[in-house]
Q: What sequence folds into this?
C-alpha cells in the first residue's frame, strides 16, 4: 500500500527524531519562512512537494526516510509493512523466504516465457509478484540494519 500524506508526515517526524533535529533547525536548513510549515507537514495537513521531499532527504540524511520518499514518489511501497520490521534477523529470514518462493516459480516462469506461451500469464504475474516481494524484503532488511546500527 502506498502511504498517505499523514503517514508521510509521521515518517518525517520520526526521521527528525532519529536525526535529533528540531523543526526550527530543519526550517532554517530548508530556508523556510515559517516553522509552522514543518508542523503542518508532520501532521499531514499540507502536502510536501517532490522538490521539498528531495531537500528533506538531503538535509536529514535518514536512510529509512529516503526509502519512504522514493516509494511515495514512485507510488510503490518499497519497505513493506510487516510484523518483523524492527528485527534484522527476522528481516533476513523474510528475505530468504521470499527468495525461495521466487525460485519455486523460476523454472516454470522461464519455460513459459521461452515458449511464448500466452496460457502462462498467471505464472508471469506470480513470478513478478514474488520478485517484487523479494526485492522489497531485501530493501527492508537493509534499512532495518542501517537503523539499528545508526541508532545505537
A:
Amino acid at each position: 500500500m502506498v502511504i498517505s500524506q499523514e503517514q508521510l508526515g509521521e515518517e518525517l517526524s520520526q526521521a527528525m527524531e532519529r536525526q535529533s533535529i528540531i523543526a526550527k533547525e530543519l526550517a532554517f536548513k530548508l530556508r523556510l519562512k515559517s516553522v509552522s510549515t514543518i508542523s503542518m507537514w508532520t501532521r499531514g495537513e499540507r502536502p510536501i512537494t517532490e522538490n521539498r521531499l528531495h531537500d528533506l532527504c538531503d538535509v536529514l540524511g535518514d536512510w529509512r526516510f529516503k526509502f519512504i520518499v522514493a516509494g511515495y514518489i514512485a507510488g510503490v511501497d518499497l519497505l513493506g509493512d510487516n510484523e518483523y520490521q524492527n528485527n534484522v534477523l527476522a528481516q533476513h529470514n523474510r528475505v530468504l523466504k521470499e527468495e525461495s518462493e521466487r525460485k519455486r516459480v523460476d523454472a516454470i516462469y522461464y519455460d513459459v516465457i521461452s515458449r511464448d506461451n500466452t496460457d502462462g500469464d498467471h505464472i508471469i504475474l506470480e513470478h513478478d509478484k514474488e520478485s517484487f516481494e523479494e526485492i522489497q524484503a531485501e530493501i527492508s532488511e537493509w534499512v532495518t540494519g542501517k537503523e539499528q546500527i545508526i541508532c545505537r
Notes: Residues 110 and 116 are 10 Å apart (CA to CA).
